[in-house]
Amino acid sequence: MSYTHLSLGERYQIYALKGAKHSINLIARVLNRSPSTISRELRRNKSLRGYRAKHANNKA
User: Fold this and answer.
1) Of 58, 39, 55, which is closest to residue 47 (Cα–Cα)?
2) Sign of the C-alpha dihedral, residues 34, 19, 8, 60?
3) Please, are residues 46 and 56 in contact by the beta-carbon 8 Å criterion?
4) pLDDT: is 44 or 1 the higher one?
5) DSSP secondary structure letters along 1-60
6) CA separation (Å) from 47 to 11, 31, 44?
7) Could you tell me the pLDDT band of residue 1, with boundaries at 50, 70 and 90?
8) Which residues contact 30 (CB under 8 A, 6 or more apart)?
9) pTM
């Protein structure tokens, strides 16, 4: 099994799609990733202001 980290571009796509109220399943399909990957990313990097792509990338 090959594992690749989410790129900054993918994180910005997650941020935009989540902001547009799209589901985790749709975000996963758009990015060609597993829904569990998206779910973990959102859970791991949530803050009081919501998901922030740049903060998530810096943390990774």
Assistant:
1) 55
2) negative
3) no
4) 44
5) ----PPPHHHHHHHHHHHHTT--HHHHHHHHT--HHHHHHHHHHT--TT---HHHHHHH-
6) 15, 23, 9
7) low
8) 13, 17
9) 0.90
Q: Give residue-wise pLDDT tens across range 24-42.
A: 999 999 999 999 999 999 9
Written as one letter, the residue type at 48 is: L
Q: Are 12 and 23 in contact (CB under 8 A)?
A: no
Cβ atoms within 10 A of the Cβ of 18, count?
A: 18
5: left (phi over 0), alpha (psi -120 to 50) or beta: beta
